Amino acid sequence: MLKVRIIPTLLWKQFGLVKGVSFDSWRRVGPVLPAIKVYNQREVDELVLFDILAHKSEDELDYESIDEFGQDCFVPLTVGGGITSIYQVQQLLRAGADKVSVNTSLYTKPELVTEIAKRHGSQCVIASVDVRPDPGKGWQCFSHAGMTPTGRDVCSWAKELEDRGAGEILITSIDLDGTMRGYDLKLIEAVVNAVDIPVIASGGAGTYQHMVDAVTKAGASAVAAASIFHFTEQTPAGAKEALAAAGVPVRMPYVTPVTD
Amino acid sequence: MKVGVIDYGVGNLGSVIRALEELRVSPILINRAIDLHIADCLILPGVGNFSDCIQILDSNDWSSALRDEVIGYERPLLGVCLGMQLLASASMEGVDGNQQEGISGLGFIPGKVVHLRSLGCTQRVPHVGWNSIKSCNSDHLFRNIPDGTDFYFVHSYAFVPEDSKNLLATTEYDVQVSAAVRSGHVWGTQFHPEKSSRAGFQLLRNFIDGEGC
Question: Which residue of A70, B77, B186, B206 lies most exposed, with the fewest beta carbons within 10 A?
């Protein structure tokens, strides 16, 4: 049986990891490498790493750092931030990423998803979508780390990304992100119903129950979270216990059998 | 002990190399078909699209060199994910409905690669995440890996072997999906051992040890 994934999200800014509230007021939470090592040792299901400044930079992506981060990561690693070309995807995969996440560039160059899917397969590309409520209409998508309104409705955009070849949708509520008040369940449910590819819930997790709700009430295939793991005593392992207790299938670490 | 990782321009090579290094094996990245014979055993990685990959393999002498090594010299080979699907006789990926035959693969293990939907799967596709496997028979590839162990899968197409004796392990995703196949000294896993943490290390270790390479 397929397990529901719990995915710690690591936001990387210059020299370290940060976490903000609603994509603002960033707090430093420590260096990247030790965090990846610890998550790897604890056998988290998957990791997502975003370079949150990359979209502002004219420089090439920081492949060297990705290479370093990947050294100790033996669970799937998704890398995002500032990706605008298939060449960059190729370099990231060589550096140690297993999947890439694309966001801002898709609003002007949606065919990039198709290019990545055609070359590396749909499973390799997570389309990341950041939204805010659009009163009376639903939710509007924002690009450039939540700064720029795009005029796109989340459901039609998610569907378009699926049709163009995205393998998964990572949906983040900008307003709830970092607040630890819970996921926007209506938003997640709307996206889950709009597409047939897996949907990863993001933005707002503050308790294990929030994760249970995202899966059992809204239908998410996976839950991503940052603040809850950075700023509280709660852990991915604890989240799994809570999900298991609620009847959600989760992965337990492999233990080498004692006898052959 | 020389484990060759075939670098034909696609795939998450970084991850495969690192997993082998973690096992204290020094992998050799093989980026020319004529160097295949240097290795004692071979790993064929792959993410992406079947027809693109087989085209690359065919156009750069990889396919014929691989046949020489694997069939001629009985070099052990492990195909991973798309690398496993490439072992099949044919794939329906990227083929329109009118073509019955599909695109030819390497043909090391008789069988066809078909979309999960055409197997009757009604769940979300791609099949992404950790799923438990069940062995069909005892094979040293799954030594110390009990049924129910989770591996990391990420795929939309699945290998359907012609003969069930080539099926080593399955997983359930609405329908039964091939998780591992074998024919002689050619193995394939649909899941990614290099990204399946300790369970994956055990499987890679089993492949390398079992073949004395």
Answer: B206
Assess if residue A130 is contained within a domain.
yes
Q: B154, A2: Cβ pair inside 8 Å?
A: no
Cβ atoms B89, B105 nearer than 8 A:
yes
Render pLDDT for A166-224 as a digit per residue (tens, 0 to 9).
Answer: 999 999 999 999 999 999 999 999 999 999 999 999 999 999 999 999 999 999 999 99
pTM exceeds 0.90, yes or no = yes
Q: Is the pLDDT of residue B11 over 80?
A: no
Helix axes A86-95, B13-22, angle to 10 degrees: 0
Min distance A31 CA to chain B CA atoms (Å): 22
Domain membership of residue A235 (yes or no) is yes
Q: B15 and A70 in contact by Cβ < 8 A?
A: yes
Domain boundaries, chain B: 3-210
Cα separations in angstroms, B22 against A93, A194, B197: 19, 41, 11
When pLDDT is cut at 50, 70 and 90, the band that residue B213 belongs to is low
- Residue B137, chain A, CB below 8 Å: the answer is no
Provide the CATH number for the domain around residue A38.
Answer: 3.20.20.70
Whether residues B150 and A254 touch (CB distance < 8 A) is answered with: yes
> Distance, in angstroms, between A147 CA and closest chain B CA?
30
Within a domain: A257: no
CA distances from A129 to A8, A105, A155, A200 (A): 17, 11, 10, 10
* B192 vs A contacts (CB less than 8 Å): 76, 98
The predicted structure's pLDDT at residue A208: 98
- Alpha helices by DSSP H, A71-153: 86-95, 105-108, 111-120
Measured between CB atoms, does A7 come within 8 Å of chain B? no
Of A45, A71, A197, the CB nearest to B18: A71
What's the domain range around A143? 5-245
To test the contact with chain B by mutation, choose from A41, A92, A243, A251 the residue with the greatest count of B C-beta atoms within 10 A, namely A251
Q: Which CATH superfamily is domain B3-210 in?
A: Class I glutamine amidotransferase (GATase) domain (3.40.50.880)
DSSP labels, A184-207: -HHHHHHHHHH-SS-EEEES---S
